[in-house]
Structure formats: structure tokens, C-alpha cells
């Protein structure tokens, strides 16, 4: 799953996100969702989340 639909993401979900500083390079950061920051149900660049370690970025991939 690509992380564009808010309904696919819940706290505790393992995801790969792209941090703001890594948007040019596309480097992904793996982590567990703590908070969902995007209010809309869909975002074309990925739902913005905060990981348990405090990093914030947009979800690029939802891991199973």
C-alpha cells in the first residue's frame, strides 16, 4: 500500500516515510506510527505521520 489513504494507517502501523530533509533524495525511514497528522482522508504525496521516535514525514509505503 502506498500511504495515500488515511484509513489504511493506524497508530502502531509499521511504515516507511520520507522526511522533509530527504524529499530530494527520496531516502526512506522505517518506523512505527505514533500520531497521524494529516486530517484529510487522502493526500497525493502521502499521509503525514509522527513516528514513535518523534520523526515526522509522509508515508510512502505501509509494511505488512
Automatic annotation (TrEMBL):
**What Pfam families does this protein map onto?**
DUF2196
Q: Cite the InterPro entries for this sequence.
A: DUF2196
| Superkingdom | Bacteria
Q: Which NCBIfam families match?
A: YwbE family protein
Return the protein name.
Answer: YwbE family protein
